[in-house]
Amino acid sequence: MFVLLCSSAAGASGAFAGAGRAKAAVARRAAALRYLDRQLQAAERQTWYWERLTGTPRTQTAGRTLASIAVRDLSRTVKRWKRRELAAHEKAQHPPHMADWMCIHHWEGAWNDRGGLYWGGLQMSISFQERYGGWIYKRKGTADHWTPLEQIWTAENALKTRGFWPWPNTARMCGLI
């Protein structure tokens, strides 16, 4: 009888230990998913920022929920998005007409210039900023608060339809018109 009670008690404590291990495994998985989800969201946001800045179409997500994805698959997805972010960032560092914009900037103003009618290193008017860099203008205000890359990519947007004509004197001095 004593042996039977001991063995059944040992079995019960083993069951409790098994349940505890299962709970711990579920908690570890949930923590890993939360961590990876934060990593994924950050990589997506940065990728989409660089894509929007450069005029690249936005990369779409697969649309799966965390509950339906394995930790290993989510980890792979995070790595894929980090590669996309790196590629989008690299593209943003090399605007097609960078040397031309740097020449214009040389004759215009400082990147943080708060001029009376024109702002930033490419001396953009408010209407110019709203039209060609509206989302940045709404987020950061005038061009003197933008990064040089944001100013240059805004000018790239204008270049598609207006050429270098918004900078007639400096573009002429740079041999662009």
Q: Unreliable segments (pLDDT under 50, ≥5 consecutive)?
A: 1-6
DSSP summary: helix tally: 6
Categorize the overall geometry. Answer: elongated
Largest sheet: none
Write up what this structure looks like.
The chain has about 180 residues and is an all-alpha fold. It folds into 2 domains: about 1-90; about 100-175, Lysozyme (Orthogonal Bundle), CATH 1.10.530. It has 6 helices and no strands. It is elongated and about 85 Å long. The N and C termini lie far apart (about 105 Å).
Write the layout of secondary structure elements.
Elements: H1 2-54, H2 71-92, H3 98-107, H4 126-140, H5 148-162, H6 168-173
Short description:
This protein is mainly α. Helices cover 68% and strands 0% of the residues. It contains 6 helices and no strands.
Features:
177 residues, mainly alpha, Lysozyme, 2 domains
